[in-house]
Give the backbone structure.
Amino acid sequence: MSAPPSVRAGAEDTGAAARARAWLDAALMLWCAHGQADNGAFYEALDWSLKPMPQPWVRFRVQARQVHVCARAALTKRHAAAADHAERGFAFMLRSRKDKDDAYAARLMLDGGGDGAPQLYDQAFALLACASMAALGDGRALKEAERLSAVLARDFGQPRGFSDRRGPVRRYRQNPHMHLLEACLALYQVSGDARFLARADEMVALFHERFYAPPRPSSPPRLREYFDSAWRPLRTYPLEPGHYFEWVWLLHGWARAHKKPVPPAAAELFRWAWAHGRGAHGVALHGVAEEGERALPPPYARLWQQTEMLRACLCEAPQEVAGVFAMLETHWLDTKPLGLWRDAQAHAEDAARPPFVPASTLYHLWGALAALAGDEV
């Protein structure tokens, strides 16, 4: 789901799109060269000397996200060689299933096989990987998406939404449903299969019915994150500006798929997160207290929240795109070697550098910077 041409044109005027493309080129080359084992498994993280984190497993979501990124990069033609990395990663992912009628385990052992109870969040990224591999022309991908969709309905499906795990429902979460919407929109885009769009519609309906409470004079717009087994909101969790920003571009994408107006909630989410979800230097915060007026101490932030803010600006505030990208470059992407990043900071001037750079964040960087650069196809 790319940015509108008018937004990309405005970004080109400032050079932001060209700089985003150059950074992505460096990152793709680095992670393809150093981020994957010979058997197709992607590494969980790299250190600053480009050596993989010494552990025998990778989270499933990392494997699926890296397949997605490499496949999307290959479609740009500038990174045609990334297709081989995507194909080997996808084959490793498929081999990890315990049997052909099961969901994916939470962790993949680097020497093969899976470990850990399947989670809805990971299955959403498996579907996203299938969509991107289908766009790349892999004949297995849509069949796998259909198979996994049936497994989700059977093992995770509930009268409303999906459970986090198989078995008795203990709680529901907003986040996996959001990513299931993302995957279903991508699958519909590549296949034209109305079943995927119908599932996306279910996720948007659930957003309006359960996740989202519109603004009122006495309260901000609330995006609820956690629910008990009866879908009652659990109020002990902060508001997460990063998820507000993610829903903005997803609602825009859903509206484009239907060729209909964008739901008003997209603008409402953006306005609140932009006004109350940022800290020093405009950095998007990890969490904000329930009343929506103050950051939780300390004002912690992750890189992924910045990328989702950029992507939301492409949809709702194109005049802010150049400034947000400059903040990304200054506080998060200015690293040596180029193509790595600072993944978390306690504040905007935080110079601390953790020993490892997590591979999972490349998915967020690709989504935002490729949309800015006009590389999403």
In short: The longest helix spans residues 16-34. The chain has 13 helices and eleven strands. The longest strand covers residues 45-47. Residues 5-9 have pLDDT under 50 and may be disordered.
